[in-house]
Design brief:
alpha/beta, single chain, TIM Barrel, globular, 15 strands, nine-stranded parallel sheet, four-stranded antiparallel sheet, 18% strand
């Protein structure tokens, strides 16, 4: 057979007596020719014959060398269309979009990373390192290490928050304060309270760094209690560095920063006393603005109805919450259990509630026992930052 003949036409062999090929042989030969020609054309003309590969929605694992190279840099990188990827400790990708009216809209999404999804937190911290600060969330100042928002927008209130289930059942946050004021009380609270109880560290306390690291390794979310002026000051003195209504903004900010630098890894600030200071708008303004710009929440213990903390948090735009019940205004076990039952009633009515108390032996014992019973009744205990962020605009 002459392969140069037009397809479907055979030349007559010069030897008329030669036998013709069988039909099946001819068909097979033609198929081979067609297949060979098609393969050659495909190789030479890919744009004509090759279709687009299907989109793979599962991200491919990153190249090991690329990951190693990227992990050596602590600076965030700018991507296309205004996307800034996080530093190595963040775990977030931030997209900032400028709208037509000039406002900047910021959205967060996770980096490609291994591990469980955490509800209520932009990123997570390895429990083994929970006593160490995320360096991207630390600002070095003359006062010491202060909390700050990372270059990619990750906030301490997000990174140090305790994970939770994400279920929308009845939720309670209990905050036990005064950690650091008493060695025995601090030790009992950290070691005996369940890890889903939030602990608040008094900035005027002792050995705060040691207690903070132990509490964080145990799994507790923590706050920092900053001393603020009560109405009967100085007869009732919260301690050194108290924020005073009559002091200048510079003095109060300096004292606030001294308090903030005592420890790291906290999600927010809580007042220690402070009825007068919390009700003075001029004194509150610079302090609340500094707290907000550092990516922290503010928990108001609810001890004064004249507090302006919620108004400032709403105007500035950062997480804030009021405590619903002070559980140990009367330091008596039965009285504390009664207040905890009241806290549960509020939570069942509103879906959530916040209780605050101090690290007294009676409080620690009552909370530990009552919490286990409440869990059996279907209540979930969460870090206080979860409720603060939900209740904020």
């Amino acid at each position: 057979m002459n392969l140069h003949a037009p397809l479907g036409q055979e030349r007559k062999d010069k030897k008329r007596g030669a036998r013709r090929l069988g039909l099946s042989t001819v068909t097979s030969a033609l198929a081979v020719v067609a297949l060979s020609g098609l393969s050659a054309w495909t190789a030479l003309s890919p744009s004509v014959l090759r279709s687009e590969a299907p989109i793979n929605l599962t991200p491919a694992p990153p190249d090991t060398a690329t990951v190693a190279e990227a992990s050596t840099s602590r600076e965030p990188t700018e991507g296309p269309a205004g996307i800034a990827t996080s530093g190595p400790n963040d775990g977030a990708v931030v997209r900032r979009t400028t709208t037509a009216d000039g406002n900047v809209v910021t959205t967060f999404s996770p980096n490609d990373r291994q591990g469980p999804v955490v509800i209520g937190a932009t990123s997570t911290q390895d429990p083994r390192l929970a006593g160490q600060a995320n360096e991207d969330l630390v600002e070095m100042t003359d006062a010491g290490e202060l909390p700050t928002v990372s270059a990619t927008g990750l906030r301490p209130v997000d990174f140090y928050a305790r994970p939770w289930s994400g279920a929308r059942g009845t939720r309670i946050a209990i905050v036990i304060g005064g950690i650091g004021l008493s060695q025995t009380g601090s030790q009992a609270a950290i070691r005996n309270l369940p890890e889903d109880i939030t602990l608040a560290f008094a900035a005027t306390g002792n050995s705060l760094q040691r207690w903070m690291q132990e509490a964080r390794r145990k799994g507790h979310e923590i706050l920092l209690q900053v001393p603020m002026e009560p109405f009967d000051y100085p007869a009732n003195d919260p301690g050194r560095g108290t924020l005073l209504a009559e002091k200048t903004a510079a003095t109060n900010i300096a004292n606030l920063h001294q308090a903030m630098a005592q420890i790291t890894n906290y999600t927010g600030i809580m007042n220690y006393m402070g009825a007068r200071f919390l009700s003075d708008d001029k004194a509150m303004d610079p302090v609340m603005r500094d707290i907000g710009k550092r990516g922290l929440m503010f928990l108001d213990d609810g001890s004064t109805a004249r507090s302006l903390s919620g108004d400032f948090a709403k105007a500035i735009g950062f997480p804030h919450a009021y405590a619903d019940v002070m559980i140990d205004a009367q330091v008596d076990r039965q009285a504390i259990l009664s207040k905890l039952d009241e806290l549960e009633r509020i939570a069942r009515r509103n879906g959530q509630a916040i209780g605050v108390g101090a690290a007294f032996d009676e409080t620690i014992s009552a909370v530990a026992e009552w919490r286990d019973e409440a869990v059996a009744r279907g209540i979930e205990f969460v870090g206080v930052s979860v409720l603060a962020k939900e209740n904020s605009p």
